[in-house]
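pls design
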């Protein structure tokens, strides 16, 4: 069982802005390293579906290397099918129901349970979809997902506001 410790809001601080500025270079270096290094031997997958949810301001290309790796291992790795992630629009519950329908459509030809992998905001989507589709979901994996429910504890709140046109505050219900 994974336990999440909740910290008082005055203890959590936004990372230095310089780290955000170095992200493109770091990502490019990691991508290049993945292309030139000899891959480690990994256990073959069982072919079950794995759906990837990209982070805010990105699309499936941002997790393409991970998706390709999962395919090479034998999983049926799928993109979330929503294109560019601009954050939820309109009523969040209605938006999640629509995303659930999209995910259900991706799984129609798969009798096995699926794994959902979400990066950053995509991790929140993955977790919420797993709650809505529990009998069809095997695992949820999140990468760099902001579960502290305070958007001002990251350097990406301004981008969320720009792309979605709404406040970057995360509904407290999504952090539980």
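designed seq:
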């Amino acid at each position: 069982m994974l336990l999440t410790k909740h910290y008082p809001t005055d203890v959590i601080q936004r990372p230095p802005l310089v780290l955000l500025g170095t992200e493109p270079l770091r990502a490019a270096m990691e991508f290049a390293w993945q292309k030139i290094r000899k891959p480690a031997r990994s256990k073959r997958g069982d072919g079950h579906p794995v759906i990837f949810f990209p982070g805010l301001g990105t699309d499936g290309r941002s997790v393409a290397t991970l998706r390709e790796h999962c395919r090479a291992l034998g999983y049926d790795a799928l993109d979330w099918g929503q294109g560019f992630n601009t954050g939820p629009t309109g009523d969040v519950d209605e938006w999640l129901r629509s995303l659930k329908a999209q995910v259900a459509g991706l799984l129609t030809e798969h009798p096995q349970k699926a794994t959902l992998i979400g990066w950053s905001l995509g991790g929140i989507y993955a977790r919420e979809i797993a709650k809505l589709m529990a009998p069809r979901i095997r695992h949820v994996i999140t990468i760099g997902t902001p579960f502290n429910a305070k958007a001002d504890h990251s350097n990406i709140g301004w981008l969320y506001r720009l792309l979605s046109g709404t406040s970057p505050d995360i509904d407290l219900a999504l952090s539980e």
